[in-house]
Fold this protein.
Amino acid sequence: MDTGTAGGLPRLTRKGRATRERIVAVAAGLMFERGVAVTSIDDVRSAAEVSSSQLYHYFDGKRELVRAVIAHQTEAVLAAQQPQLSRLDSIEGLQTWRDLVLGVQAGRNGAGGCPIGSLAAELAEIDPEARLDLADGLGRWAGAIRDGLAAMRARGDLDESADPDRLAMVTLAALQGGLLLAQVHRDTAPLQAALDAAIAHIRSFEVAVAG
Amino acid sequence: MDTGTAGGLPRLTRKGRATRERIVAVAAGLMFERGVAVTSIDDVRSAAEVSSSQLYHYFDGKRELVRAVIAHQTEAVLAAQQPQLSRLDSIEGLQTWRDLVLGVQAGRNGAGGCPIGSLAAELAEIDPEARLDLADGLGRWAGAIRDGLAAMRARGDLDESADPDRLAMVTLAALQGGLLLAQVHRDTAPLQAALDAAIAHIRSFEVAVAG
DNA sequence: CCTGTTCTGGATCGGCAACTCCAGAACAGG
DNA sequence: CCTGTTCTGGAGTTGCCGATCCAGAACAGG
């Protein structure tokens, strides 16, 4: 794992890494709850219990910090779903994943949206580099879904005409759109409907089981 | 149409209404391009070519202005899609609507997202009243879609088991999620995939035509 | 016209946000 | 231990942002 700054790594001490991690984690939390723009450096500073100079010791400025948060959230989301994502190669696996996502969101009463999607909506138009990072993160997410679907197809569970890349995009879009509607309505029903529809759509490519 | 402030309307002159409209329209444009938080009152002020006092003459503050922008964008989106939305009661109608949405987004090279959805993502967690306005706006949008689907079902084109409310939510979620992915990837392919999947899902409830 | 209201220009204020700076403490590696 | 680097505390600077204020122009309705 890298220290953060590409290439010219400034050699972090064990303690240094811990502090840096703490700052990023705290910043990620605040920015998820309230948004990037509304979260000031000073909010992060006091919540992480670090001094102003520490923040600027580890990050060139707010933009750098935000990019670190993007990386952090990407890893967090993928890590949290890894068990379920790696077993996405069956309809049951999809259902389990659906239940997981839905459960997390229900626990928040629908609030909060997607840790990556929210950042994407806020940053895509105003920070080109952040947009690329987010595109990459969402791409990895879609990739994980696609792998499962590709396995299903290779095994013969899905028809040849099923395009794993496309279906993964559709599923991720359903998730993101469902989360947004759930967030606005403070109700997980839209998310549930969207995910179930996505799975139903995948099932429409199922090959009739012989036996 | 109301002047904006609920109830105690402060009697706007013809010119006053024009100025107010101009401010809202300009603010809506800027906030769509860059986001609410990044758009300062002064940005709006200079872009709309009004003085600071005018802004505060028509709006109590930035929050009020934002809420006016939400109302403005809701009307704008519904008005722009009205012709197609009112003919959403057939598969062809859905296709036409899909083509419209996709065309608009392609014209922007995928950038920009949804005028309502972007606001929703940015404001849902930090402005409860704005969230309700946005829920209402998205609700009206979903309602328009549902009406078309309900008409299809009543006519017998869709199976009894098709739930228009649910399908409308699914379609709107697909649209929002597709727009977000399109925005991040600067590519309309995800939006196209999502919308086509939503329509395919609706078609799965189609009743076989006799003749 | 006259009169009260609405509309407009522009200066101004307080506060906060991002960022800088420097001196000293903690630390790693020899 | 010694030495150079990393890490930390906290005061300070600059600029912008939302909001206010007041005086005067434009206007509506009689």
